[in-house]
Write a structure and sequence with these properties.
Blueprint: H1 3-10, H2 13-23, H3 25-28, E1 40-41, H4 42-49, H5 53-65, E2 69-74, E3 77-82, H6 84-97
Antiparallel strand pairs: 1-3, 2-3
Amino acid sequence: MDKTEILKALAHPVRVEFLEWMKEPERHFCDQAHPLDMGICANQFEKRCGLSQSTVSAHLSTLEKAGLVSTNRVGQWAFYRRDEQAIAAFLEELRSSL
């Protein structure tokens, strides 16, 4: 776990918002055509926040590189979900080190 990478990823409010939305997918992405247990399709973030596809992809990529989300690719689609174990480990690391 790279705490600095995670902190950088969390420094942008849109990325924090994405993580918050993914915490309750049934509330925020109920109109997704695919089952939510597959993860959240990248285009759902675009619809919800109104940002361009490239901007959304960059934010999701940053979260993935930091280890906060995992990606499941199905054909041309990318589905994202929170990595709850990584998030819990990061929070525990912060508790013990700060």
